[in-house]
């Protein structure tokens, strides 16, 4: 590992990019020359950046290392972060590692099986069609993110959790505040967390009185504390819509940036599943990646990381590693197998990945069927990134048809 001297400023991570859909050149440079590297986070704190596929997968999969907790002296992602989900009460209430974490995941995992996702597909498709119709009715050009990508996952996770439709906009705001690293003050974060918790507490109380056919009602017999039920509900609401909403917009943008890709899908819609996976793999705007706190010395990539290290695992950089993927920088709509790390790996791999995959597939199928002439309304290099979110996204996706 390159060990910088005290006179060298550390590279700042995350790296800046010229455009919203292209990766920063540093990813390839670090993978080749310095796959285990010291970097400075926005806070000024030092972390170790890991960029190669095998190394990232090794660290994420090792049960000894978990998400940093408030008790760890871990590097902060940003000094102006208002707390963010990483430092929220939710992160302290939910079990983060060991048997308790596995039990929590297993209990929730029953709601994210392939069988349940297949049962949800027709409803998702009907909702996507309604959103597309509404977008078309307003006339071109339109914002596909605001019109389709954002509302669909919100509707789906509301439905799964038994949240009334009328409350969607409120929790979308709370979620945005809690996922922000820099855009809100500590007071605004605290207010959002308090309001979200109070809302979720009221929702759960209502379900105790009158259970429904939803996840929160089904969790009541588990005898979890109210704090754990509230934290679980908030966690699922945030994770269940923000990341997928952003990914829908990014996927469509990638497929339209080179319209031969869209044409290939129109010619062969059976490519939808593999195209979704390839979009996930090639996402250059995925956010900061996964932080892991090392409680003991650990060797990875031929380098010993000392205890107390905060390792930033860049899944997006790893997903472009030529050692793991042939023509890694190219978009192969039929790539199979495609063992990308977009959903992480190991005990903390994304619990809702079957839901995200299903939503991405359904939206793409509906758009290809209803709007075959879809195209970007601005050049791809003019698309604008969302700044200051823990997950990466586009501010809007202007399209016409």
Automatic annotation (TrEMBL):
GO molecular function: heme binding; iron ion binding; monooxygenase activity; oxidoreductase activity, acting on paired donors, with incorporation or reduction of molecular oxygen
Stored Pfam families: p450 (PF00067)
Keyword Magnesium: no
Region (Disordered), start-end ranges: 1-21
Gene3D superfamilies, alphabetized: Cytochrome P450 (1.10.630.10)
Pathway participation: Antibiotic biosynthesis; vancomycin biosynthesis
Keyword Metal-binding appears in the UniProt entry: yes
Keywords associated with the record: Heme, Iron, Metal-binding, Monooxygenase, Oxidoreductase
Lineage top rank: taxon: Bacteria
Cofactor: heme
Family recorded in the similarity comment: Belongs to the cytochrome P450 family.
Cited function: Involved in the coupling of aromatic side chains of the heptapeptide of vancomycin.
Name of the protein in its database record: Cytochrome P450
